[in-house]
Amino acid sequence: MQNTVSLPFGGADDTNGGSRTISVSALNRVARETLEARFPLLWVSGEISNLTRAPSGHLYFTLKDAQAQVRCTMWRNRAQLLPFRPENGMRVDARSVVTLYEARGDFQLSVEALRQTGQGNLFEAFLHLKEKLAAEGLFDPAAKRELPPYPRRIGVVTSSAAAAWKDVLAALQRRAPHLEVVLYPSPVQGADAGARLAEAVRTADARAAEDGIDLLLVVRGGGSIEDLWAFNDEALARAIRACTVPVVSGVGHETDFTIADFAADVRAATPTGAAELASAGYHAARARVGEIERSLSAGMERRLHGLAQRLDRAALRLVHPRERLGLARERSERLAARLGAAMTRRLERLEGARRVLELRLVARKPDLRREMERCVRAAQRLGAAGEQLVQRRAERIAALATHLQHLAPQAVLARGYSITRDADGRILRAADETTAGEEISVELAIGRLRAIVNSTEA
To answer: Which range is the signal sequence, renumbered to this chain (predicted)?
Structure first.
C-alpha cells in the first residue's frame, strides 16, 4: 500500500521549501479519487434515518448504528430497481461505493443496492407500542370525536420556539383571525419531552373550562424518527385519549406517523394542516356568507329592475297630457326621493367605510385628510348630480305645461278659429248638419254670435 498521494502540482510535499498550494476543488477531487480507489465495493449494515425522496427519484438518507452515521445517496436508476420501499427505522445492508461529494467535501456512500435485514430498534419499539395500545382499544375509530365546526378558542401544545407554533398562528390569522389561541408550552424534543408533552395535554384538559378552549392541537414540525420520538410516548397517547376536548395531531410531514397521530381524534399531515382543520368551519362559513350576499344583491337588483319596467309600461299606456304631466310630476318626485335616499345611503356607506378605514389604518397612519376630501368631493358630485336631475325634471314639467296650454280650446279660438253650435248646443262640424232658417250660435275668442242660416253649401 502506498503511503503518499500524487497531488496536482506533482508531489506529496514541498521538498524545496517553496510555497506550492492546492485549490479546495483539487484537494476534494484527489480525496474522492483516493477513497474510490482504495476502498472496494462493500456491504455496509445500518439503520435508515432522515430519508428524503427527491422529485427526481433519487434517495438521500443516513445509515447509522449506535456509535456513528454516514450520509448515503442512491440514484434513481438504482432506486427504481428496489424490490421494497425503504422507510425510516428500517435496518438494511447497503452495497456501496465509498466516495466524497466534492462540492461540499462531504464523506458519503454511493449506494448501488439495498437488502432488508430487519427493523431498527426505535421502529420496533414504535410498532410494539402501537400494537399494545391498539389491543387496548386506544385507537378505536368509534371513540374518535368530531371536531367542533366553530370553536370559540383553541389550545396548542408545542414549544413556543418551534416553527410549528408560528405556522399555526400564521394559518389561523389567514383563515380565522378572530380565533383566540392559548399556548400550553412544552419541549417537543429531548429525553423528557414525552412526559412534558403529556403533562401539557393534561394541563390543557384541566384548564379547558377556565381558558374557554374547546379544541386542542398537538403539533411539531418534521424531523427524523429520533426527533419525533417524544410523540411516540405512551403517557402522551393516554393523555390525549383521556382529554375531554377533541384533539388534532399535526406532527412532522405528510409521511410521518407517530403514536400521537393514532391516539388523536383527527390526524393532520402538518401543523399548518391542523390549524386549517380547526378553522375549516369558519373558513367555509365566510365563503358561504359571501355567496349569500352576492345572491341577495343580485336578486334585489333584478326585483327593482322588474318593478321599474312594469311602472314604465303602465305609464306608457296613459295618453292624456294632463295625466302624463301628473305622472311625470309623481315620477320626478319619486326619483327625487330615491335620489335623496340613495344619496343618504351612499353617504352612510361612505361614512361607514371611512370609520372602518380609520380603524384599519390607525397603525399605518394614512393620509386621512386626503381621503376625507375625496369623500367630500364624491358627496358634492353626487349632490350636484341630484340637483341637476331635479332641475331637468322641473324643466320637462314646465315644457309639458306650456304644450298643454297651447292645446287648450281658448288658445285655438284666440288664433281666429270659432266653435259653431246648433240650437241644442251640439257642435257643428259639417254644413249638412243644419238647414236654412235654423238658428245657430258662434263662439269666438271674445263673445258669442247668434245667427240664422240663410243657406248651406256642402
So the answer is: none
- Give the length of the chain: 458
Q: What is the pLDDT along the chain (458 residues), one digit of tens a residue?
A: 445 566 665 544 554 555 688 999 999 999 988 998 898 889 999 999 999 998 888 999 999 988 899 999 999 988 988 878 888 888 888 999 999 999 899 999 999 989 887 556 667 777 778 888 888 888 888 888 888 888 889 999 998 888 889 989 998 888 888 888 999 998 888 878 888 999 999 999 899 888 888 999 998 887 766 777 888 888 888 898 889 899 998 887 766 678 888 888 888 888 888 888 888 888 777 778 878 888 888 788 878 877 777 777 776 665 667 777 787 888 888 888 888 888 888 888 888 888 888 787 776 666 778 878 888 899 999 989 989 999 999 999 988 888 887 777 777 777 778 888 888 888 888 888 888 888 888 888 788 888 888 888 76
Using alpha carbons only, what angle is made at residue 272 by residues 271 and 276, rounded to the nearest 5 degrees?
Answer: 120
Q: Is the pTM of this model over 0.85?
A: no
Cβ–Cβ < 8 Å for 272, 158: no
433 in a structural domain: yes
| DSSP bridge pairs for 217 | 156, 248
**CATH, residue 96:** 2.40.50.140
| Pair (63, 164) in one structural domain | no
User: What single-letter amino acid sits at 62?
Assistant: T
Query: 170 with 262, same domain?
Result: yes
List strands edge to edge, sheet with 439-443.
Answer: 419-421, 439-443, 448-452
Report d(CA 417, CA 410) in Å as an integer: 9
The region that residue 400 occupies, defined by phi over 0 for left and psi between -120 and 50 for alpha, beta otherwise, is alpha
Residues 442, 354 share a domain: no
For residue 54, tell me if it sits in a domain. yes
Q: List the domain range (segments joined by +) for residue 348.
A: 318-406
